[in-house]
Amino acid sequence: MRNGRKFYYLLYIALIFALFSSWKVTALNAAELKPLDKFEVIPSSNVAGEPNVEYKFILKLPEGTTLKKGSKVKFYFPVGIVPTNAIPAGKITVDGVATTVESKGNGVSYIEVTVPVALTSGRDVEVVFTGGSDGAGLTNPTYGAKTFTFISSNLAKTTANYSFVGQPINSLAMGVSSEQAGEINVEYKWSFKTSEYGKLAEEQFIYIYAPKGVFTQEIIPAGKIMVNGVPTKKDSTVSRGLTVRIPSPVNIEGNQQVEVVFLGGEDGAHLRNPGFGMKRFLLWTQMNEKETVYYTFTGVPVQEASVVSVSKEAGENNVGYTFSFATSAYGALSAGDMISLYAPPGVFPDAIPAGKVLVNGVTVAQDLTVSNYTVLKIPTPVNIGNSEKIEITFLPEAGLRNPSMGEKKFLIWTDMDTRGTAVATFDGKTVQSALVSSSSNIAGETNVAYTFEFTTSDKGFLRKGDWIYVYAPSGVLPNQQIAPGKITVNGVPTTFATKGNGLTYVIIFSPVSVGNNERVQIVFQGGEDGAGLKNPDVGVKKFIVWTSFDGKAALNQEFVATTPDVPPANPVEETVPPSDQPDVIDDPVNNLPPGEGQNDSSDKEKDKEKDKEKDKEKDKEKDKEKDKEKDKEKDKEKDKEKDKEKDKEKDKEKDKEKDKEKEKDKEKDKDKDKNKGK
């Protein structure tokens, strides 16, 4: 018994040794195999899906190797190229010699070719799969980078890469059953036409990209999407919440119209509309490259918007703020969606550290950056439902600062709801001891230097980048933007200034910090290379200066005609701009939220009223000009009448002179007659 066990034990050891030796020899042989020195693939067309394409492979055998006549080699292709049937003899050539036997493969990924001629190393050899309707029958694969492989028993595997391009799809369009931002269970419909070579087999893929939040599931079950009226037979998967891959339930030909419908309703695909505004969608297939379509969704404003500051004193720093509002009936937000706030210039610091802002009592865990000095976007740390109250709390450490005195406008909107307006009133002071002077007070003179001076209030300090405003009468500021460096603040050139409100005021981004109760001097350079300011017409004119934190102060400057001893006929006093101008400026640096989808009817009505007032003022000016022209015409007529009267007077004088001459002549004639009588 023991001897039997010993025999089997020794037999087992011998088998293990034999297998190991065989594996070792095979491994050593494989290690000795060399790949081709050259392997290139050159199709006659690079367009995805094109049929009957010629494929040329260039091979170079490594030194010391050969391929004998009758050797079998395999060419591995990307899926979709290889015909399902064997390739007849003569449809492939090797080094110019046609094959004499058919070339077979698995009908999916490879073709085995019998070499019709011996091949040696050290030179390029061409293997050509003929193209055309009577060729080898190869069809280009889907677009993108693809790998080809050459395998021979006496050579190591060698690969080559080639990239194919897809034709674009045609006539892409989309529609939805509702355009309301945030609405759920909406039916979506895409239509397009495949390209000439855009043929798709059943279960090949159609892809659609949509904005974040449109696809609410990772898997859309079979039957919830229709392709040309046929429900999908397999599930469609959603990648990263943005791109759905749809296995077509039908064959689709080239140049065929296709309609893809995501069913709506409670038992549909559960698609949700994105936020308000114009949104981008993409559609493509395995054969056709991406095409873009845009669609605009409408929103409604956030509800019950309000803002509260712990302090009402203008310019107060490190103040706690609370913004509150309610989402609309479709305004639900997922964690990570954005809540946006607009505040007057200077309220928000450049950045707010993590942990200093709370949304419904939950801390925002990341740093926040303010864009364009006035807009802050906050990713909500919590999910928020439809018609739900939201409270955003800024701790004093967030660094918010109250704006200048007066009624100020704040705006609130989200990814789903358009902007709502909140108003707060602040008490404070104006800039102090304001002065204006110019290098010339001659009306209409160009390239004049202007100097404005004022003192900040006890809460009016300015940080570098805070805003200083200067209002000037119409026509003083140039039509174009003022170039950097042409304005100085306390002797330091500005890097940026912009104009707003019909070119009547300029906003200066202070290049220096200014303390409380500190004097500020603003100089607009004169001369040909200066800021380009021009004096207004004759009369006493009003200028205004203010900052982000100190209110407006009006300044007077008188301008005279070139000959000052002749007083102007009708001196006109410049009208002071309205006291609330301008808290929300005319978007000088895109600082207001995007206009798309925003519904602020009160603002629109105010704008209409302002436009009407402007139109009335323009009409009044036109009437004045007409009256002036009429007066001029009347004056001309009067002058003509006067000239006629003068001419008449002259004629009378001439007639009198003539009569006198006649009387003299008569007297002379009488004297002559008397002399004759004598």
From TrEMBL:
Q: Which GO terms describe its molecular function?
A: RNA binding
Using the UniProt annotation, give all residue ranges assigned to the region (Disordered): 562-678
Biological process according to GO? regulation of cell cycle; regulation of mRNA splicing, via spliceosome
Q: Where are stretches of biased composition, namely Basic and acidic residues?
A: 601-678
InterPro entries from the xrefs? SON
Signal peptide (UniProt feature, chain positions): none
What domain of life does the native source organism fall in? Bacteria
Task: Give the matching PANTHER family.
Answer: PROTEIN SON (PTHR46528:SF1)
Protein name, as recorded: Uncharacterized protein
Phylogenetic placement of the source organism: Bacteria, Bacillati, Bacillota, Bacilli, Bacillales
